[in-house]
Amino acid sequence: MSARTELKKTRKVDTNDDxxxxxxxxxxxxxxxxxxxHSADAVQLLAETFRVLGDPTRVKIVFALxxxxxxxxxxxxxxxxxxxxxxHSLRALRQMELVRxxxxxxxxxxxxxxxxxxxxxxxGFDHVRELV
Amino acid sequence: MSARTELKKTRKVDTNDDxxxxxxxxxxxxxxxxxxxHSADAVQLLAETFRVLGDPTRVKIVFALxxxxxxxxxxxxxxxxxxxxxxHSLRALRQMELVRxxxxxxxxxxxxxxxxxxxxxxxGFDHVRELV
DNA sequence: CGCTCATATGAACAGTCGTTCATATGATAC
DNA sequence: GTATCATATGAACGACTGTTCATATGAGCG
Lengths: 132, 132
Fold this sequence. Notes:
Helices cover 58% and strands 11% of the residues of chain A. By secondary structure, chain A is mainly alpha-helical. A three-stranded antiparallel beta sheet of chain A has the order 1-3-2. In chain A, strand 2 (99-104) and strand 3 (107-112) form a beta hairpin. At the A-B interface, helix 2, helix 3, helix 4, strand 1 and helix 5 of A face helix 2, helix 3, helix 4, strand 1 and helix 5 of B. Chain B binds a DNA duplex through residues 10, 22-23, 25, 51, 55, 57, 71-73, 81-92, 103, 105-108.
């Protein structure tokens, strides 16, 4: 630990948001990381994106859609959930712009909205593979 | 206690893959996608991983740890949450093996558990950047 | 027209989540 | 020893979530 760090040991950093009563151990790190932090909006959006993906039904839906464009009833069969449950899940995914769909007659064909989503799921399964 | 032994707890499995009364539009697609689907355990684990990341406090924590190894109190300052809230969040992240820590005296230094996590967050922010 | 199919959606319910508060542990300092 | 610091954790509470059920919309068919 540097002398410079040692000197600032018990100083409090301006939290510029709320009264957080925690001491700072390494003010240099705190300032450095804070400068890199994304905007509150981006953080909020990303958290909502992850939250939407944080459900087995929706993980299966997104994975399935990363392989094929699929209609709601086939998705329901594949993921083993009711049509209603899948439709509600698709709405959540749509609202986060994770999936889109095209209507052909009475059938709605869903697919992933962009290539980030497929990579997100793949990266996730890569991480999980080491846990099972 | 290792993070590995903490990983267990609430794992719920849905085994009802039969009560689905939906017609199939394209049986070839259904069979093809089904064959590629990951195991129920992997899907469950990935959903839990995403769910843990689906919270602004924890997104900030993981992002911060992708830049620096940090102790709990500095994390609390950076993300603007109480020490208790951060500690609870870190436990959830630990249980999913997203972060690990080393103890040095009374200070616990946290860091990301592997490089997948940092890429997951980066990929997520890439997706989100197009929404804001 | 009436009927069925594919999908969407609102309400309701049981379960879960994230925070706060109070307190515990264990290390360091005096 | 006592005091303080850094962290962990259980309980509790309000807020939120995912499903089911019932129903609605709207396209295609006869």
